[in-house]
Design brief:
This protein is α/β, with parallel strands linked by helices. It has helices spanning 54-63, 97-116, 127-147, 164-171, 188-191, 197-204, 215-228, 256-264, 266-278, 298-310, 333-353, 370-379, 394-402, 433-445, 448-463, 467-479; strands spanning 2-3, 26-34, 37-42, 45-50, 69-73, 79-80, 89-92, 148-157, 176-180, 209-212, 232-233, 237-240, 243-249, 284-291, 319-326, 361-364, 382-385, 409-413, 426-428. It binds 6-O-phosphono-alpha-D-glucopyranose. 6-O-phosphono-alpha-D-glucopyranose binds next to strand 2 and helix 1.
Length: 497
């Protein structure tokens, strides 16, 4: 049966709230643009599949262990039945087709996403998109206000919902509100372009705790907030509206135990061997796994490899690259162009350098099951993670966790948040094509003992701080009254994020 959920189904106002009788309200509510499942339709019908992105994998790990409620968009305007997921209670919030264009594709992904990623693409500013962003944020805030128990906790996630903390505080001053930004927060030079910069800052300042992936982002935010709003204080504690707001770095991580268990699973180990033999038993397997996004530096990576093949450092047949590009935001023109550019580069490289039955780049534009990804991580000698800018990049941490035998080499962009912790990686500035080639050469050629020591260092870092530690430290700080120093990471190297 198709349920036609309308926007009004989920909208309430503060006057509608019935605190006495609504005993289904939750102590802990997570609110993110996406539910962990999304609904999509094809010729054969509709289905719920896992949503893409680091946010979902991180929060699923956390919420499946607690009895929380997850509020989010199901990814479709009409869907069959209510989704259920791993014991997590899900509350869908609907958006209209017009809001999909203006709030999701527009303000979230064509204004905020490029602006917060170093304006790699020109951010577009449209008033109608801003109005849609306000309206959808208001809707999410009202659903959260209806769902949370008195004195409970609401944890708001990511750039799509930056106005929710303030809107929710107005409806429910009794709840504690945390906000975590999964993507970078830009320096003032870029953020100042935003026509509604003050409103966004004030939206975020409705929270009690504001978390970022890296220290630099937290400092950027506090500095701009003090410049543009009435907030006072220092980088870690702001005073605003007669409240104290804590600001800090809470670097997100992966479910290390889950990945370790998969790595020990004989079926996944067999699959990893099978992948190598299906690739023609090459000496060297290189791997890239990304959402197909212009921030990820996929084409730059292919260019570097293509030159390394042309120059004879890499040999077709002996050395192969596997690039998994997970489909993403396909109705956006920038993503469409990025896809065509990547596929043209793959085609040219294989056309120029591949042999019959031996392409140099195996390109897969699909969303693969996680077990298959782990098998690919296991099979890969070198992992290439080369974004121009990335909030964290969990793929880098997943690869490290898959190499319990200390094999594997990680080439990692200085501009990924993960670079602050994974100091054992072969660091690269992906804007520098010759530098990228040098670092790939260095990673491939490094003596085994050096590579093992690097991997061991990275594994200590990831094992020392899992996704559960991330959630515990954030929720712990949110629950604690006295000001505690938010967690910071060693920033002595590298310098970039
Ligand atoms: C990144 C963002 C998430 C987003 C995900 C997938 O990880 O931080 O908020 O959900 O990309 O993007 P999508 O637009 O498909 O939700």
């Amino acid at each position: 049966m198709t349920q036609s959920h309308t926007v009004q189904d989920h909208v309430g106002s503060s006057a509608d709230l019935d605190f006495e009788t609504n005993d289904a309200r939750q102590e802990v509510v997570v609110i993110a643009n996406r539910l962990p499942l999304r609904y999509s339709t094809s010729d054969v019908g509709g289905e719920w599949t896992p949503s893409p992105g680091g946010l979902v994998s991180a929060l699923t790990a956390v919420l499946s262990e607690s009895n929380g409620l997850w509020i989010g968009w199901p990814g479709a305007t009409e869907y069959d039945s209510e989704p259920t997921y791993d014991g997590i209670r899900l509350q869908p919030v609907d958006i209209t087709a017009e809001e999909y264009e203006e709030y999701y594709l527009g303000f979230s992904n064509a204004t905020l996403w490029p602006l917060y990623h170093d304006a790699i693409r020109y951010p577009e500013f449209h008033r109608s998109w801003w109005h849609a962003y306000q309206a959808v944020n208001e809707r999410f805030a009202k659903v959260a206000a209806d769902s949370v128990a008195p004195g409970g906790i609401v944890w708001v996630h990511d750039y799509q919902l930056q106005l929710v903390p303030r809107m929710l505080r107005r409806l429910r001053p009794d709840v504690r509100i945390g906000f975590f930004l999964h993507i970078p927060f830009p320096a003032a030079e870029l953020f100042m372009q935003m026509p509604w910069r003050k409103e966004i800052l004030e939206g975020l300042l409705g929270a009690d705790l504001i978390g970022f992936q890296v220290h630099t982002a937290a400092v950027n935010f506090s500095r701009i907030a003090r410049r543009l709003t009435s907030a006072k204080g220092n980088a870690a504690v702001l005073e605003y509206d007669d409240r104290e707001i804590r600001v800090g770095a809470f670097p997100i991580s992966v479910d290390s135990a889950q990945i370790s268990a998969k790595v020990d699973d004989p079926a996944i180990r067999e699959r990893a061997s099978a992948i190598r033999s299906e690739l023609g038993d090459p000496e060297l397997v290189m791997l890239g796994v990304d959402r197909l996004d212009y921030t990820k530096g996929i084409r730059q990576r292919i260019r570097a490899l293509s030159e390394l093949y042309s120059e004879g450092f890499l040999i077709p047949g002996r050395d192969v690259m596997v690039q998994i590009a997970v489909p993403s935001r396909e109705s956006d023109a920038h993503y469409d162009v990025a896809r065509r550019n990547i596929e043209q580069s793959v085609g040219e490289t294989n056309g120029d350098l591949g042999l019959v039955g031996k392409p140099v780049i195996h390109y897969i534009h699909q969303n693969l099951p996680f077990d298959e990804l782990v098998a690919l991580y296991l099979a890969a000698d070198v992992m290439l993670v080369t974004p121009f800018r990335d909030g964290m990049n969990l793929v880098a941490k997943e690869y490290v966790m898959a190499h319990s035998d200390m094999t594997g080499r990680l080439v990692l962009s200085e501009f990924a948040g993960a670079a602050m912790e994974l100091t054992g990686a072969f660091m690269v500035n992906p804007h520098d094509l010759d530098g990228l080639k040098d670092v790939i050469r260095a990673a491939v050629s490094a003596p085994e003992n050096t590579a093992r020591a690097r991997m061991a260092r990275m594994r200590r870092s990831v094992l020392g701080r899992t996704v559960y530690d991330w959630a515990d430290s954030f929720l712990g700080a949110l629950r604690t009254d006295p000001v505690i120093a938010p967690l910071t990471v060693d920033e002595s190297r590298p310098l970039t994020p």
